[in-house]
Amino acid sequence: MVSIPLHLLDFTQVHFIGRTLLSRESVKWLCLAFEESRFNISKENKNGIGSFDYGIFQIYRHFCCKDYWSHSENICHEDCQDILSPNLLSAISCAKKIVSGAGGMKNWVAWRLHCAGRPLSYWMTGCFLG
C-alpha cells in the first residue's frame, strides 16, 4: 500500500454532499507525485544536465525556483528550499503555475512516460473517503 501525504490529499480532494472523494483531475496529480518522487516531499535529485529537481513534484531549478547557486528564471517566484517544505504549499503552488503554462502536465517526463494516456483508475481505488 502506498502512503500518500495528507496535504497532497487535501489538495486533490473534491468535497461533494458530505463525502470526500478524489476527482479525475486529482488522480493526475497523485500519479505525477508518485512517479516523480514516490511521494517523498524532501527529494532532491541532480539531473543529467547538472541542475537539480526539488520536492514531491521534482520541480526543475533552472526554470522554476531560485536556489541562490545559479541563475534561474524562477517562474514560480519560490525559493527551491521552500518547495521541500512539509506543508507542500510552495510545491503545489509552483506545480499549478507550471501546468497552467505551455505543455501542461507534459512538462514532466515522468508524466509522459508513466501517466499520460494510461488508465489512472488505480489512483482512485480505495480513495473514496467519507
UniProtKB/TrEMBL annotation:
This is (raccoon dog) hypothetical protein. The lineage of its organism: Eukaryota, Metazoa, Chordata, Craniata, Vertebrata. The keyword Isomerase does not apply. It comes from Nyctereutes procyonoides (Raccoon dog). Keywords: Disulfide bond. InterPro entries: Glyco_hydro_22, Glyco_hydro_22_lys, Lysozyme-like_dom_sf. PANTHER family: LYSOZYME C (PTHR11407), LYSOZYME-LIKE PROTEIN 6 (PTHR11407:SF9). GO terms for biological process: fusion of sperm to egg plasma membrane involved in single fertilization. Pfam families: Lys. One of its GO terms (cellular component) is sperm flagellum. GO terms for molecular function: lysozyme activity.
